[in-house]
Design a protein that fits this description.
Elements lengths: L3 H32 L54 H12 L43 E10 L9 E5 L15 E5 L5 E7 L10 E7 L5 E7 L19 E4 L5 E4 L2 E3 L2
Parallel strand pairs: 1-8, 1-9
Antiparallel strand pairs: 1-4, 2-3, 2-5, 5-6, 7-8
Length: 268
Amino acid sequence: MLGAKESFVIKSIEFRKLGTALAAFAFIAAGCSAGGANTAPVATTLPTVTTAAPTPVAPAATTVPAAMAAPTATTVPAAMAAPTATAVPAATATKAATVALAPTLAPTPTACSVTLTPAQTEGPYYLAGAPMKASLVEAGMAGTRVILTGRVLTNQCVPVAGAIVDVWQADDAGVYDLKGFRLRGKVTADAQGNYAIETILPGLYPGRTRHIHVKVTIPGGPTLTSQVYFPNEGANRTDGIFDAAMLAKMSDGAGGVKMATIDFVLKK
């Protein structure tokens, strides 16, 4: 047995069919009347059909045409693709490795700024055969302590390892020891050409300013004979042998000791 809703739907369909049939009949009748006298067509009153509003139906999912579909991921052409890492040619890679492993070398000096040490007279008081000793100071010896120090170099600025530095001088009273080796001695320069001798500030004697005699011998090479002087000495102006090129640079050391620094540069 049909429900009220189903009966209503069926009746609505029958009314639609009846309305359609009536409309067709009216159209035919109007055509026939037109073929005779020009009389106005009789107006056909169609029955009023009450149609129930259709039940809303949810729209079906819309199928998007292929042309309107969301674009798929675009495939980048090979020419537009991101560049891959460029392989380094073998020759370039080898060169890079060589540069990375090459040690950093100190720049080679293009010029040497040293000046050859001038030679000076040996004087009358040199005695050969002085002992090897780094300190010429003896117990009870008067005078200001001085350390004579510096380097032995060639005219190419190369330190001379093993150079012999032989010194002799007057004591604090200006007197030389001519019977022994008091205030006389030798030292050997180290691998960097450095030397140091502990002594005293030499005294004055007539005609001469304060000075220390020195002989420097390069192994297998020449011997330089010269003299070392001290700054701020009044007698420097009257000593006929004095040479300002042989002035030591003075500074104060520990315990009141004076430091007298001078390099000896020999041609080799």
